[in-house]
From TrEMBL, chain A:
This is Afadin- and alpha-actinin-binding protein-like. Pfam families: ADIP. It comes from Culter alburnus. It is found in: Cell junction, Adherens junction; Cytoplasm, Cytoskeleton, Microtubule organizing center, Centrosome, Centriolar satellite. One of its GO terms (cellular component) is centriolar satellite.
From TrEMBL, chain B:
GO terms for cellular component: microtubule organizing center; MWP complex. InterPro entries: Centrosome-WD_assoc (IPR052778), WD40/YVTN_repeat-like_dom_sf (IPR015943), WD40_repeat_dom_sf (IPR036322), WD40_rpt (IPR001680). Gene3D superfamilies: YVTN repeat-like/Quinoprotein amine dehydrogenase (2.130.10.10). Signal peptide: none annotated. This is WD repeat containing, antisense to TP73. It holds the Pfam family WD40. PANTHER family: WD REPEAT PROTEIN 8-RELATED, WD REPEAT-CONTAINING PROTEIN WRAP73. It comes from Culter alburnus.
């Protein structure tokens, strides 16, 4: 909305300034009806009255009109000054100014009206929207209120339930307590009863016993044909105090012997354990002592501690040796020393571990740098070997299976068959090799052929070019300036003119050849070798070459295509040579 | 493995003399003594009534035959066949009779546990011990036969009396700290007496020979407690089996628990081997029903079985005990150590078809034998680590650390092995069916 507002606000200040600037010279002429009309409309005067009545201004009431208008204008705050003129008529400029002012005013008012209208529309829609949302919110509120009440109800019910449950629990607890008390009372009752019963029972038993004793049960008897001697052959002894004491003594002796045996076994176990402990200790010392040597290189405090403990160890050793019998004091020492050793061993092990890991790390790094390639090669090799071995095993397995599956008489047949197939395979392999070779040869030939074809194409192209050049020179030779250009050249033969081009070509295509030529030429007359021949030299050589070639050219004048061919053939040979060099690769 | 011919017996009364030379069996009212090797009848004694209980004296010279209904005990001598002794308990009745360890006294427990009568064969004298307690195992002799421990009940309290068996001198008499003593047992070295409470309370007490309480142990409260107790032959371990399906092993130095063996329904212990008995009915084709089959007469009717090693984890068949009945069928009811102390065999009542063998060196499960029928009886070879068991069918099963084997008893008719025991040399096994017995000689197997 703000965005919408700014552009409408913008023109306002400018309008104001305009107003201010134009304020001085405002004058209004009532001549323009439409301005009046517009003014009227802005002033919200009833149109009907205006249209029905005679015009507002007539010839007669101009002055009144002017006065009125100026008054009106004044009331509008436009300082409708001096509308009346000295000349009695209306001067156009102030009127127009005024009119303009009024028009501006009207436009502004209209714009404001528009704005207000749109604003109102907007507001209306906003209002509607708000009303809508209000409605919605009201609904929502209602809904939530309902929900809330529902929840409240639920809660209330739950609370009720809880209350009832609590009541239940309480009653249950009470019942449990009651039952427990019942149980306990029953238990006591039961215990009491059992005790009573038991007592009764024992009383009955007693009575029965008494009766039995009193009655002297006739039947209760032992009939033995003759007495048997005691199993140990001794006679039974009377029960005396001495016997009692003897029994006691025997019992204690038995107990004592048991304890003794137990003690002996424990002693044995103990000594075994001690032995093991000693052994372990010795081993530990043995393990630790070589380390001492290497440790000495390490920080001094460590080795010092080592030495100190070692010394202590030895004393402990010797003391233990003497204290072997009375283990009470030795025990602590022993365990202490063992503990110490153990701790040392542990730390040593840890250190070793860390060292090993460190070394391993370094080694790994070094190796990784160095011998990855080797590794790979080795791996490759090993893989190959593995593959071979696998194949071998597979073959063996197959053979074995065949052997196993085939019955005994078929064995030889199978073997022969195997031989045949093997032979066949060999042959096939040979043929395959031959075929491959042939194929390769063929391929090579084909390549040569294509090469030659390409070269031929090239040749042809150059020939075409040559021909074109020749034609050109021919054409040029006809012109007079050619003669001037080539005065030094030997008598131009019709065919020789062609040779100029090959010279140029010679110059361009095999520069090495020319260079070497120039070398040979220059080295002889001059000591200082000229690396790069100057253009003059070039010309000179060029002049020389034709000389040397003069007859050659003459010779080859007609045989040009032949020489071409030859060069082509040499080229070809060179290329083929290269091919040959390449082919083995 | 060889089998003897089938002999008759009644009431499962068949005992080998302690010296291993004779075999005594009772057939109705007759007592037959045979040579163990030849099985020839050496002596034949006739009792006054059907024998209910028979026992060898420790020196293998006398045999005691008890006829509880008549309240009579008859003693026979092997050396003097015409010697006889008859003890009549009279109108008071008799419920139990046994030899004293010296083989010269007979201890008779009268009805209602009124008293124990000690009859001497040497002096014809009689003495009474009053107030013996009626319980699971109220009397026990030490292995050397010098002392007897007896549980007593007086004034609603448990007492223990220790007697010197030589002259029945009461050595110690002390109150035991039990609510309701259920049993007592001497350690094999005769120096420690284990006393346990009845199943309502888990409590085991250890008394020294002189009546001092060495230790007491309780694994838990408020639940059914001890069901069985067993000493290892070295007296080093005390195994306590309880209703919670566990066996707790106590050591002999601190009397604390070393370990406990659970009997889980699902065996996941990978170190254990589960042998499962698989029955195979012989497929009788028409051509198979030939002479070959007919000669192996009884194999036609009996099923073959073999053991298969089951892949772990595996489920052990479990029965659900009825919680409303007394003495529910749950918990470890039977335990036995092997003679070399290395193995412990246990049976959990709610897994009646399984026998568990534990390694006492490793203190872990070694093997589980899953039978097709409930295990009736299992006994260790007194010489070797070898376990024999029976399940009430026609087979006898043997376990040793090397493996498991099931052997059909190849006798005419069906011989359903109800119980078995070893000869003291471990060379043979005596198998008992309802009314028959059969010897199974192990020599052949041993030679292999």
């Amino acid at each position: 909305m703000g965005d919408w507002w700014t552009p409408t606000m913008m023109p306002d200040p400018s309008l104001d300034t305009k107003e201010l600037s134009s304020i001085s010279g405002i004058s209004m002429s009532p001549s323009r009806r439409n301005s009046h009309h517009s003014l009227h409309s802005t002033m919200a005067l009833p149109k009907t009255s205006y249209s029905v009545l005679s015009a507002f201004c007539t010839e007669e009431n101009i002055s009144q009109c002017i006065a009125y208008i100026s008054q009106e204008v004044c009331s509008l705050g436009l300082t409708g000054v001096s509308l009346e003129c000295k000349s009695g008529g209306l001067s156009a400029v102030p009127v127009l100014n005024l009119l303009y002012e009024v028009l501006q005013l009207q436009r502004r008012a209209q714009r404001a009206l528009h704005e207000l209208e749109s604003q109102q529309l907007k507001n209306g829609s906003d209002l509607e929207h708000l009303q809508h949302s209000n409605c919605r919110l009201k609904d929502q509120l209602e809904h939530t209120r309902r929900e809330n009440s529902g929840l409240h109800e639920g809660e209330r019910q739950l609370q009720l339930k809880i209350k009832t449950l609590q009541n239940c629990l309480k009653s249950e607890k009470e019942e449990v307590q009651k039952l427990q008390s019942i149980i306990s009372s029953r238990a006591t009752q039961y215990n009491h009863d059992t005790k009573r019963k038991e007592r009764e029972c024992s009383k009955l038993k007693e009575r029965l016993n008494q009766l039995l004793v009193d009655k002297r049960d006739k039947k209760l008897a032992i009939e033995v044909s003759n007495y048997v001697g005691r199993s140990d052959g001794k006679r039974s002894l009377w029960k005396t105090g001495k016997m009692e004491a003897r029994h006691e003594g025997e019992m204690y002796r038995a107990l004592l012997s048991d304890y003794e045996t137990r003690q002996r076994s424990l002693m044995l176990e103990n000594s075994e354990l001690k032995k093991v402990l000693q052994h372990m200790k010795k081993d530990m010392i043995a393990i630790l002592s070589p380390k001492k040597l290497c440790v000495k290189m390490e920080p001094a405090d460590d080795s010092l501690e080592q030495a100190g403990s070692e010394g202590e160890e030895e004393t402990a050793d010797s003391s233990r040796e003497t204290l072997e019998q009375s283990c009470e004091q030795a025990r602590e020492q022993l365990t202490n020393s063992i503990r110490l050793q153990w701790r040392k061993l542990k730390s040593h092990m840890e250190r070793l571990d860390s060292q090993v890991s460190l070394v391993a790390c370094q080694e790994r790094e070094a190796e990784e740098l160095m011998s990855r390639k080797e590794h790979e090669e080795e791996m490759q090799r090993i893989r190959l070997e593995l593959q071979q071995c696998k194949e071998f095993i597979h073959m063996q397995q197959q053979l074995l299976q065949q052997q196993l599956s085939a019955p005994c008489d078929d064995e030889t047949a199978a073997l022969l068959n195997d031989c045949y197939t093997l032979e066949e395979k060999e042959r096939l392999k040979e043929e395959w090799r031959l075929f491959n070779e042939q194929k390769r040869n063929f391929e090579r030939e084909r390549k040569n052929f294509t090469e030659a074809a390409i070269r031929l194409g090239h040749e042809r192209k150059t020939f075409e070019e040559d021909r074109a050049a020749w034609l050109k020179t021919q054409f040029l030779n006809m012109t007079p300036f050619v003669d001037r250009k080539r005065p030094a050249l030997p008598e131009p033969h019709s065919a020789l003119s062609v040779s100029t081009e090959p010279e140029a070509k010679l110059q361009s295509t095999p520069p090495l050849l020319t260079k070497s030529l120039s070398y040979t030429v220059f080295s002889t007359p001059k000591a200082a070798p000229v690396k790069m021949p100057s253009t003059a030299d070039l010309y000179r050589t060029l002049q020389l070459i034709p000389e040397s070639r003069g007859h050659g050219k003459c010779q080859s004048g007609e045989m040009l295509p032949k020489s071409r061919l030859r060069s082509c053939s040499t080229d070809c040979s060179v290329i083929s040579l290269v091919r040959d060099e390449n082919s083995p690769i | 493995m060889n089998f003897s011919e089938v002999l008759k017996q009644s009431n499962q009364l068949c005992k080998v003399s302690p010296d291993g030379k004779y075999l005594a069996t009772c057939v109705q009212y007759r007592l037959v003594v045979r040579d163990i090797n030849t099985l020839q009848i050496l002596h034949l004694y006739t009792c006054l009534d059907q024998v209910m209980h028979m026992e060898w004296s420790s020196d293998s010279l006398f045999i005691l035959c008890a006829m509880y209904k008549r309240g009579l005990v008859q003693v026979w001598s092997l050396e003097q066949p015409d010697w006889h002794c008859k003890i009549d308990e009279g109108s008071i009745g008799l419920v139990s009779s046994r030899w004293s360890p010296d083989g010269r006294h007979i201890l008779n427990t009268t009805e209602f546990n009124l008293r124990i009568t000690v009859w001497s064969l040497c002096t014809k004298s009689v003495s009474y011990i009053k107030y013996p307690k009626a319980c699971q195992k109220g009397m026990d002799f030490t292995a050397d036969g010098r002392y007897m421990a007896l549980a007593e009940r007086r004034e609603c309290k448990d007492y223990i009396s220790v007697f010197v068996c030589d002259d029945w001198h009461l050595l110690r008499h002390f109150e035991s700290e039990t609510q309701d003593l259920a049993g007592l047992e001497w350690s094999p070295n005769g120096c420690v007496l284990a006393v346990w409470d009845n199943c309502l309370e888990y409590k085991i007490l250890l008394y020294s020979l002189d009546g001092r309480l060495l230790s007491s142990y309780s694994a838990y409260e408020w639940s059914l407690g001890i069901k069985s107790v067993s000493w290892s032959p070295s007296s080093q371990f005390l195994a306590v089996g309880s209703f919670d399906e566990k066996v707790r092993i106590l050591n002999h130095i601190t009397w604390k628990k070393i370990t406990e063996f659970e009997h889980p329904a699902t065996i996941v212990n990978t170190k254990a081997v589960v042998f499962k008995e698989v029955e195979k009915r012989p497929v009788v084709g028409s051509e198979d029903l030939s002479i070959h089959q007919l000669t192996m007469d009884n194999s036609l009717f009996s099923t073959q079985s073999k053991y298969e090693i089951t892949q772990l984890p595996t489920q052990v068949p479990v029965i659900k005990p009825d919680p409303d009945r007394a003495n529910p069928k749950i918990g470890v009811s039977a335990m036995a150590f092997s003679a070399d102390n290395r193995y412990l065999a246990t049976k959990n009542d709610n897994m009646p078809q399984s026998l568990w063998v534990w390694d006492m060196q490793r203190l872990g499960l070694l093997a589980v034998l899953e039978q097709t029928a409930p295990v009736r009886c299992f006994v260790w070879d007194p010489r070797r680590p070898r376990l024999a068991l029976c399940t009430g069918n026609t087979k006898v099963y043997l376990w040793s650390p090397a493996g498991c084997v099931s052997v059909n008893v190849p006798v005419e008719g069906s011989f359903q092995v109800q119980s078995l025991f070893w000869h003291c040399s471990g060379s043979s096994l005596i198998l008992l069916s309802k009314e028959q017995l059969c010897l199974c000689y192990m020599e052949a197997e041993e030679e292999k």
